[in-house]
Amino acid sequence: MTLAGAALLGLLILVAVLAPVLSPYDPRDSVGPSLQSPTFAHLLGTNDLGQDIFSQILWGARPSLLVGVGAAALAVSVGVAVGVGAGLRGGWADTIAMRVVDVFLALPVLPLLVLIAALVGANRTTLIVVIGLVRWPEVARLTRGQTLSLRHRGYVQASRGFGGGLGHVVRRHLLPALGPLIASGFVTVGAVAVLMEAGLAFLGLGDTTVVSWGLMLNRALLFPGLYYSALWTWWVLPAGFAISLAVLGFTFLSVSLEPRFNPAWQRSTS
Amino acid sequence: MAMDRRTFLTAALGTAGALALGGCDNPDADGDAGRPGPVGRPTIRLGAPQDFGFPSPFTYLAGPGYTRMSLLYDTLLWKDGSGELLPWLASRYERSDDGRRYTFELRDDVVWSDGVPLTAEDVAFTFGYFAAQTLSPTILAQPNFVSEVRATGNHIIEMTLDVAAVTFPEAIAAAIPIIPRHVWSNVAEASKAQDPAVLVGTGPYRLESYDRAQASYLFAARDDYFLGRPYVERIEITAVGNELTALLAGGIDAAGSAVTGVQPVALGPFRDDPSYGLIEETGGFAIPLYFNHSRGGAMADVVFRRACALAIDRPNIVERLLGGNGLPGNPGYLPPGHPFHVEVEQYPFDLEAANKLLDSAGYTRPGGTGVRQAPDGTPLRFAVSVLNSLPAVVELVLATLSEVGIELVPESLSLPALLGARARGDYEMTINFDGGVGADPDSMRRVYSSPAGGSTAVPGYANPELDDLAQRQLVTSDQAERRALIARMQEIVALDVPLLPLYYPTLYHAFDKSVFDAWYFTPGNAGAAGPFPYNKHAFITGRISGLDIRTVSD
After folding, report:
1. Does chain B have fewer CB atoms within 10 Å around its N or its C terminus?
2. Confidence of residue B6 (pLDDT cuts 50, 70, 90)
């Protein structure tokens, strides 16, 4: 499963990076007749504006990946900082941090995102920030737990006993030990972010100036008579398939990493 | 009388049963004699993409909202499918020689839905009340031109106008809903009144229920309607995502294409199946691109606007977006085919010419790529407000504009927000709607004349010659002169390009013939509604013209 996940994500990254090279056409140009079924010139046909759907699928990997990775990076950075800080300091700082985590965990994420997107618009930066900011608490909770247990390990105690500063302990001992946990948190948030980005674009709340899978679905479903012919098979299915594959890639990785690195899993299985 | 759930269900089942049993009273003679026709008075189920407001004369939203309201309220005159004004609440009227005085004689057999008889006092009150209220600019029927209304008898009204507007009978007498004095004299702020109890009208239907969240409206016929028992017994409007698909699935009985137009593929199922009827109209509706002149800068610069016209491929929009189901926008506003239309400058798509024009006016573009800068250094980057369900047209517009260095940033709005923003002039550019292009050409005055200032006006645009022409066409009773004045107005707006009509979509209306078949697009629009085929006249009479009510076979 790890391999499958890594392969899917690798493919996604490859497509996103090489989109300009791989795409036969500019995804925004009207390059063929409208609503053409797949041909050699247009592998996945064209949409109502005569844009090449295959090229749009390739370019659509970029916003998905960017939001996925960006949000995951943000969530992990904040989550680790809070989790490790709370775990090491303990006391009132820990209590406050964990209550904040509880509040964030209780927030319904999608309605919140829809609200924010409708109010301030959903460009990629807002999406990354918002998804990152609502997803950090899970990472924080896990890293705090692990930090608490690591703090009492002999080598950490020893390091502190020999005068190792907080920064030194975090860098030298905690982060390497937390690495796998961080990796698993990263892919988990990434999967959610990809799905949310597509979901918002699908609802028409995303960035309308960037070609993305969600936006492709949004446009297709606004087309009256979409289902009266085979049109949907080349206009709707590829984008839906691409989103599914991307989410699947992140999910495979996270599911396969979790039992190895999540301490709760290790306790329950041993 | 409110209908409870059980009677509602019985009625619904009765209708369904009647349809299943069938009959042979199909009045259309196009060879479908074998198909089941309606038995009993039909119920028409309609769908709408959204809510169109509480159906009082002061709170409805846009043309579809006006249509709903017009089922409850009547006007002095009203149009049928021939486009002729029929006597409605007024049995006859006279116009004075100077065109500034009208005398209306009311029918004496009209009663409000609460049983009180209609009198001339109600009509006088209506005009006074409308004038005293602060109306939202999105309320389409507003009593312009009228300076005095007096009830001179129980059923006689005299109206005096500020100007001898030739459009008065159609634009005002056949558009302003008459409201009961005994209800509204107690209501201080009409735009806040949302209690169903205020919906007392003389109209052919009463509102049985309204649910804003569900966008549903249930109307039931008034058996005591003054023209007779309406042919269509019930009109039920509910929210549906896609009307055409809902019609195909049998969930509703008639469906309009989106006002933004449709590709031929969406109409295929209705063309192929003889049990559906399909009517169409081109040139009743426009999708214009507005420039907000009051923002100054490039917006107020005619060279910039002409360059935009050159750099937007309007025939391509019709071809791509609608598969040819429409007409490219005409800078002269009136669509080809309009009786007053004349040929004017078209600005055929030419990116090179647009670039040259922009260069010559000092809109610089170092290196020949990227966003241009105005002479004062501001980049030619503008927010364009668009309807959230109309993304494709924006994409086509901004693709070619970006090639000449003009960048548009789309901003999606809901329909009420979009119409409100235009009425308030709260936008930089907007791709909006205009249901007046197919009506009387006085619509040009409301859009372009600087003193008019209606909800469709272009903010900040003022051309004294055009203002003068607009005022003169309004009052001339000489048809040839009016034609010449309006021709000149079209030439001026084609040169000034205060706004640019992008395209005129063909509007379609598909319907299940076995339920109701007397659908028509009213020539020049009915009342203040746009070009929608929901004229209450058809529901009342079951016919396309005249006041004879179709008989029902039992």
Report:
1. N
2. very low
